[in-house]
Prior knowledge:
The chain is of the alpha+beta class. The protein contains 14 helices and 22 strands.
Amino acid sequence: MKVACVLITHLRAKCALRRQPELAAAPAVIVDRSEGSPRVSDIFPSATGVTVGMPLEQALSHNAGTVVIEADEPAYRRAFRQVLIALQAVSDRVEQAALGVAYVRLDGLETLHGGEERLIAALRNAVPQYLAPRIGVAEAKFTALVAAQAGRAGEVTRAPAYAAAFLAPHPVTLLPLPAEVHERLQRFGLRTLGDVAAMRVDQLSDQFGADGARAWQLCHGSDDEPFVPLRHEESVTAHVTLPFVSTSLEFFLVTLDGLLQSAYARPQMRGRFAEQAAIQCNLFRSPPWEKTIHFKHGVGCERAARIIRNRLEADYPPAPVEEVTLTLGSLTGESAMQMGLLRDVRKDRLDRLVETDRQLQARMQGKRSLFRVVDIAPWHPAPELRALQVPLDPAVKDSMKPLATPTAAEVRAGADNRPLAVRLQNRWHRVAGIDDQWCFDLWWLAAPLTRTYYRVRRADGVPLTLFHDQRDGGWYRQAA
C-alpha cells in the first residue's frame, strides 16, 4: 500500500508560539505536571541542552532565564483534531498514531486529485502553515514515518520501494517499541536500523521475543500492522477571540449565542440539526475550561441556545475568558421535535434584515452596515464594557466590538491634574468649566481599571467626557 506520514514536530511548542509569539527567541519549555513530578513535554528552539521527558529541575539548570509554560493538553488535542478533520477532506483513510503523527492512505486517490504530486500538495495545504508539517511517502507506515523524520519542515521525502538501505542509517529509537527495548538493543551494540536488519530474525526473537521479530521486520521496510482509519465525524466549529477578558456570565452567553448563529449559518448546516455542542474556553492565567452539552435529539439554533443558557447558569468558566470555541457535533438531517405549523414572524423579519444587510454590503464594498446592540453589563462603571456591537448577519466573520470605546487624547492638565485644555482635530480648545467629576478603582479585574473622569465644557459650550487612566498615565476621550 502507498501511505503518507504527516508529521508535526514540536506541536505543543508551535501551538504555544501561536498564542504567545513573543516567546520565539526565549529558552522556553512546556511542562506537564499530570503525573506528579513536573517533566518537560516539549521545548522551544532556544532551549539548548533540554530533552523531552527531562525533569523540570534539571531543565532549568541548562539555560538562564528559562520560561516555563504549563501544558495545555486539551488545546493541543483540539489543534491536532482540526488537522485530522482537514486531512479527512483529502482522503477517507486517515489514521491517528500519536499527537502530531497521522498516516494517510494514498493508493487509489491519485486519479481523483490529478496525480500523486497534487495529492501530496493537498495534504500539505490541509495543515495550517504555522504547524510546518513534514511528509514522508513510502510503501509502509513505519518507513513513511522515518522518511518524514528525515525531511525538513514543509518538505516531502519519498522512500524507495526497497527501503532497507534507506532505513539503515537511522537510530533504533525510531522503532515503535518500549523505551526499555531501545536500551537493550543499544546495550547489544545495535544502534541503527541497519544494525538490526543485519541480524538473523531468530537471534532477535531469542533475545527480545515478539518485539525483536517486529523490529527486524520493520527494519527491512515491511509493516504488517493493519491500517485503522478514523471514523469520519462531521462537525462544525466557530471560534472567537473576545475584545476584552471578562468574568461576566451574560457576556459569555452573548458570545455563545453569536457563535451558535454563526455555526448554524454555515452551508453544511442547512436543513440540519445538532445533537451535541462542545464548548472550549481559553482562560486568563488559568487552565482551559471545557464542557460538552448533549441534546436529547437534534435541535436547531434557537433551542440549542436556550438549552445551553440553562445548563451554563450553574456551571460556567471559573476565570476570565479570552477565547471561545464552539463545535456542533452528531449532526443529523432531521429534528425529533415537531416543527411549528405557523410561520415565525420574528425570524422572518430578521431574515429580511440580514438580506438587506447583504445587499448593502455589495454596494458598500463589503462593509457591514447593520448591527445589533447587546447589553452585557449596563451597570458597569466603564462605558465600553456595558454593551457590544454584534453583526446582524451571522455568516460574517467580524468579531464583536464594544461600544463607547475610548480614544487617546492630548490634554493639558493643571497642578491638581484637572484638565485645562484638550486638542481636537489639530486644534487646542480651552476647558471653560468642569460640570462633574468621579473616579473608580476596579483593581480586582483581570485587566484592572483605575480612572478619574471629568465631564467638561469647551469654551464654545460643547460638552466632552475625558478621563485620566492612573494605570498607564494617559488621557482619553470617552465616547458617549
